Amino acid sequence: MRVHTFQVIPRIPERLGRLREVALNLLWSWDEEVRSVFRRIDRDLWEQSNQDPMLMLARVAQDRLDTLASDDAYLALYDRVVDRLDRYLKERTYWDRRYSSRPLIAYFSAEYGLAECLPIYSGGLGLLAGHHLKSASDLGVPLVGVGLLYQQGYFRQYLANDGWQQESYPTNDFYNMAMEPVLDGDGRPLRVSVLLAGEATAIAVWKVTVGRLPLYLLDTNVPENPRPLQDITDQLYGGNEETRIRQELVLGVGGLRALAAMGLEPDVCHMNEGHSAFLSVERIRMLMRRHGLTFAEAMQGARAGNIFTTHTPVPAGFDAFPRDLMGRYLAEDLADLGVSLDEFMALGRRPGDAHGPFNMAGFAIRTSAHVNGVSRLHGEVSRRLLRDYSPGVPEAEVSVGYVTNGIHTRSSLSREMSQLFDRYLGMDWWRDPGPSDAWTRVDAIPDEEIWATHARRRERLVAFARRRLVEQVKRRGGSAREVEHVRGVLSTQALTIGFARRFATYKRAALVLQDVERFSRILRDTDRPVQIIFAGKAHPKDHEGKEVLRRAVQFCMREENRARAVFIEDYDITVARYLLQGVDVWLNTPRRLMEASGTSGMKVLPNGGLNLSILDGWWSEGYTPEVGWAIGRGEDYQDHAYQDVVESSDLYELLEKEIVPLFYARSADGMPRAWIQRMKASMRQLSPVFSTNRMVGEYADRYYRPTAGLYGRLSADGFARAKALAAWKALVEREWNHVLVEHVEATDRHDLVVGGSVPVSAVVALGVLPPSAVAVEAFFGHVDANRQIPHGSVAGLYHVEDLGGGRHRYTGNVPCGRSGLFGYTVRVRPHHEDASNYFLTGLMAWA
Length: 847
Known about the structure:
Helices cover 40% and strands 17% of the residues.
């Protein structure tokens, strides 16, 4: 049976003619006044529609819209909102004030967490991507987003009576969501195509407007495709290995083709994790076709314009595909590129691993000018994790930087606290990246006002939790007595702890339950009561994570805990909003070095919540004693069972001896003055730093503009510099086995003083390589007990003499910066002014 389709849109009165335009721009998701124009239509329908203005407009009664079209008060609000949107879109931005050029940056991510009504995210990676786009919009960064549009998205969670997680997969109705299909020049829905294992796969493109910038989402569920191909974009992180490679080819290859079909040619492609790394295949192919480049030349041209951000701290976090799957799905691509399967596989394998799988992170590294982790500590972990891709390079010099993640503050901030900030910090407190004078004015907010505002949000959290618990009990067929009980759980006055995140085992949700009886006593203290709200999902295939989740639920179901510990099902942006805006303490207990950054704890900062966390991810940068609490001192353990005992004991000690007493220490007027001072210190010191405005500003300064500049240089004059770089790389790799540090003249002096220097002279064999193709350096530093230099510095040596036969003399000086036992050695590395990092060759020769 063939069904002919057509789309019906709401009939909006002419006087409210731009209401649909406002609904289609996600500015409403972070601008309270814009959002209010929909809430005022029908508050109950707004909530029932999952705060989706497009769905709401589809469901609202026509006579209600007609009534509003003649309601003077509503029309005044409508006019203000339309004017606010127009001013936002036209105003001069941070980027405009700072930079003169506007290179196009394409940001690729497998998921985006933008609003409740777009359930195409699973957790932190997607929420970070969504906040990245919002701050890029606020700052005016010339950026477009590219992602996948999932028919089902991530799963919805509900619990069985024993606490075991169950999953359901509701279908998204694209035509009643805040997006619209992209049309081609003839007004028909745009289609691009990719070959997947020899099958042509059609891709539809949808546009989500995020303030000033577009997000393009790719959808294979179109009638032109056979059923198996339609299902490629069915579920986020669903299916098997074959589904993943299909999705990642659609995202990377299809994403660049979609941009090209719309006349968009990015200068910079930013890969948010390795899922989109196949974009390099398409970028190389485009350059070969358009400019007649060889694969090696196009590789250097494409690489110059790519950035790769890694979010994982463990090797298992990187997608990897076996050779046979790669051969089946990339055969046509490799024929176009003129490279063999084994040559291409080598681009994704670790050096020396001739039979390993194709690692998407490895490929992203080799095809990117810049690589970065997402916190200072994660940068260190990533250098250790990725050092195999530069085998001769010391770990500290592996070409991985970091930009610590942040949160889009206005998306995370409660309406009440936002109004307080507008009043005391100034209306523009949110505009510029990083610390500003505005945040110093937090101290000017009266204690009474900031405490009353936070207490109001705690009350709203408790009311929300009770409503959701009632729904949960009814859904499970609970008795009227159970329903009545949950209507009265929790207290609006008690110290409230939040723990909500993905229930992966490394996040250790059960750490707080290590000693159940001790924690129960803390909760049940009648004089100083404490309560905890859990939420979160385990991956459907993660049975260990599900067991941890069930343990948390069963703790909450114990009779003695039921009034003070609850689990809210189906963690999503809505649940997170109430929790993060209402808790007093945000608890985070990952196993150290396993959380790359984390962002949930950042969201409590501007809302007045305080963090209690392991010193991992962003908290290892943010923690000081006056802004929150640290569990442990950053120790690393080999025995994880022992670690859990030690750190859970530390957690209980902090609660019993510091956190609970501080919260309940009240002045004569009933105010917790010391607690409020800690709230203010946390807001003032951390909120402007751990924001995506600061983060995106860093990406702009440190990566976007330099990468666009490098791509511009290499692409000029028919990619002349890319050709030269490819030729240099081929020469260096071919001749490197002839490079040798033959002799280093050592010093036996022991009378050196701080401020002096050590002369260094070395003879280096370069074969046919010219001195301009290499850099010769002294590597020096403090010598450890094993007579090694664990953390060295570099001093350049200078070419002073050609000794003939490919041999050269270099000299220089090693500075004596401080006292102690020091040492040095000499090394040779490839050098080219257009080579952006060590991953280009991974070569280094040491004395």
